[in-house]
Amino acid sequence: MTPTLAGHRLPPAEPAPGADRCARARDWAEIQERMLVPLYEAVYERLDVGSGTRLLGLGCGTGLALLLAALRGAAVTGVDGGAPERLALAHERLLPAAPAPRARARAVARIVHGAPRDAAPAAGEAAYTLLTSFEPIGCTVGDREGLRALLAEATPLAEHGAPVVLAAWDPPERCSTSSVLRAVSRLADPEHGRGGWRPARRDDLEEAAQRCGLSPDGSGRVACPFGYADMDSAVRGMLSTGLFDAAIAATDREQVGKELTESLHPHRRADGTVWMPNVFRYLIARAP
């Protein structure tokens, strides 16, 4: 998926001419992002995220995961080097111009467009007590390597022993959406070495953590079904992830949309809704 929460993927191909980036960012925020809420909540509950937490969210996108942590009392910083349209929505969620009474009770929130080093604590501020990278790896070529590069830059910003949370798709047999990703990614241009689908491996997260000097310290699995009101919502939601940008660049949006609709058809139920059961895995590692 993706995700987008674009902080640790290879740079996505440019969307097809005429693509409305603002509309796509809104589709992500209103349709797709909520699919991962069970993952966010499971992690926060396990780590007892609250008023003593200083969280850095890598690849924060439109900021829903940050918002959920902030409502628990955490001080949150989100950083993302991807689409500014997504970060604009994160600003709306976390830094409203005229906050409601409930919003005034939230802890400090900060949104940074750039690399992890741009979100380093200011002089005199404490290091982060929690790092999260919720954009799941295990579906596109190069995502594992991109995550390692992101972690190498981000982990020095955390205090010694702080939990670092990584996420991944479970193997294809547990993720119905894998068949859709695999089918549509065939349209991508393989010569550019990106955009192609790859199956998740069971040790993806451990390998990424260990190569960055992190010590694995627990893991879990969370059911995150992708459910949509109708086929149009499903297509818009899936396109908003950015996972099909390489296919759009190699062909066009219309062709990708047709292929996506065809691939989603087996998951359409009698009432017109689209339902794809998925399982995501998270790893908790410890910063050196």
From TrEMBL:
InterPro entries named among the record's database cross-references: SAM-dependent_MTases_sf (IPR029063)
One annotated GO biological process: methylation
GO molecular function: methyltransferase activity
Recorded superkingdom: Bacteria
Keywords, ordered alphabetically: Methyltransferase, Transferase
Protein name from the UniProt record: SAM-dependent methyltransferase
